[in-house]
Amino acid sequence: MSAPDPTGLGEGLKRAADAASPRPVDVDAVLAASRSRRRARRTAMVAGAGAVAVVLAVGGLVFGLQQTGGGSTTADAPVVSGSAESSDAVPEAARGEDAASGLMLVAPESVNLCGAPVATATDAATSPLAVTVAPPAAPLAPDGTGSVEVTVTNTGVEPVTGDLSVVPAITLAQTGDAVWHSSGTSDAGMAPIALAPGASLTLPAEVTAQRCTTADDQGAGLPGDLPPLEPGDYAVGAILVFTSAADGASMLLVSPFAPLTVE
Fold this sequence. Notes:
By secondary structure, the protein is mainly beta. The chain has one domain (9-262). The protein has 2 helices and 14 strands; from the N terminus they run ααββββββββββββββ. Strands 1, 2, 7, 8, 9, 10, 12, 13 and 14 form a 9-stranded mixed β-sheet that branches. A 3-stranded antiparallel β-sheet has the order 5-6-11, with no helix packed on it. Strands 3-4 form a two-stranded antiparallel sheet. The model is unreliable at 16-27 and 37-103 (pLDDT under 50).
C-alpha cells in the first residue's frame, strides 16, 4: 500500500515523468525555488505535517531509475522518478542521467546547498547499507584541508551488490545548516561493489574549512576563493549514490554528521 500523498507530490511527479520532451532550465530560478521548497518542507516535517516523502530533505530517499523487473525496490524504500522536466529541484549542472532509462538522479554534492538545512541520515529501515564518517584526526586550521574516511557497511542479512560512488560528497555544517560542501565528486563516477553481511569498505575524501553562502551555489561548483571558517565547532557528513544490482534502483546514502573542530 502506498503512503498517503496529501500534497499531490506523487501525482505531480507522475505527470512530469510522462512528458515527452524536456524544457530548458533557468538555473537562477531553479535554485531559488529549490531552496524555498526545501525550507518549507523541513518546516512542515518539524510541525508534524505527516509522513510525506520529501525530496532532498529526508535521508535515505530513493530516486528511482528504471527497474529491470517487477517487485519491490532496494529495501522497499519509496521511489521517486522524474524526467528532465520534473527535476526542477536542482540546477542542470548538478544532475546526472541514467543512460538506460533517461531519468535524472540528483548529484550527491547538490543535496546540501550552502546556507540550507542539511539532509538527515539514511534510515536503516530503508537501506541495507549504512554510511559513517571519521573526521580528521586533528582540528583543522581556518582555510585548511583535512582527510576524512567514509565507511560503507552492509548492515543487512543478505549480500549486497551494485555500483557505488567512487568519491563521497562531503558537507561541513554548523547548527544544522551547510557551510561548505565538496564540488564535482560525481565526475569520478561509480564502481561495482559486493559486500557480504557485516562487511564494509572505506573511501577517502577531503574537507576544507571554508564558508560558502547561497550566492556561491549559483554555478556548477563552489568558487575557489571562499573565505575561511571561523574557529569553532562544526560537523562533517558524507553522501554517496548506490545503485542496486538486484533491481536497478538508485538511492542516496546519507551519513550521520561527526563533530569537527576548527581552531
